[in-house]
Amino acid sequence: MSWAFVLASVSVAAPAFAVDMLASGSGAAASARTWLGAGGLLEERSSLTPRSGWPLTRAANADLAWGEGVATARSSIGVETGEAGISMSGRAFAGVEGGAESGGAEASAGAEVAFVVQRRSAWRLAWTRADIRGGRCEFSISSGDNPLYESEGMNGSGELEPGSYRIAFRVWAMAPRIPSESWIALDAEWRLNPLVVCACDFDGDGLVNDMDLLVFLEAYERMTCGLVCPADMNGDGCVDDGDFVDFAAAYDALLCPN
Predict the structure, then answer these.
(1) 8 Å CB contact between 27 and 8
(2) Tens digits of residue pLDDT in 68-96
(3) Does the domain formed by 196-258 have CATH 1.10.1330.10?
(4) Domain boundaries, the chain
(5) Count of alpha carbons within 13 Å of 161, Cβ hemisphere only?
């Protein structure tokens, strides 16, 4: 099954990343099809978002019944920017049951986001919820026509230099015979964190001052960390008194080391 993305030209910026990441284009597509026998009955449904603001949501369903047999395909995709980065949600289900003749179902959904990184940053991808049986997922980062990162899973990390990039996210499921079924339900988050001169300089201005203190205190109040947590100085997964001691020393020195 072929699928494609169409990028929008409208400029959309995620508020918390206005300095570091500017989203400049987006598209989402979902498709589902069912069939009976070789070249037999076919139903195909698709939906495409060539131009839209956030969030992007698309869904497609296709159903085929013959005698006592049923083939079902369902797909949906959702992408949204937020304070932490980009959240992605994909669903695909394909199932065939009953009947004596061969039949099948296939469903896929994908989304793409184009963005600009304004300063060298670290990224991290991780799934937050997954339910998979036979379904598959795919994630990639590219610059122009050059692929930089490709994975058949929703976990990974790396760094990006300033420049223009594109993220693609896809899920799909197939049920090629009677009886069979496969599915995937996956939620993932992609986060971007600027690389700074010193750990406590959260805004990268070369100083550890009141602006950085506000960022630290907000994380300190929450205590728990997300996928990317610059205020977690010792990397133990929480922002507590140990991190406060490290930050206080840097705050007292004011200037970041060269």
Answers:
(1) yes
(2) 888 899 999 998 876 557 889 999 999 99
(3) yes
(4) 15-194, 196-258
(5) 2
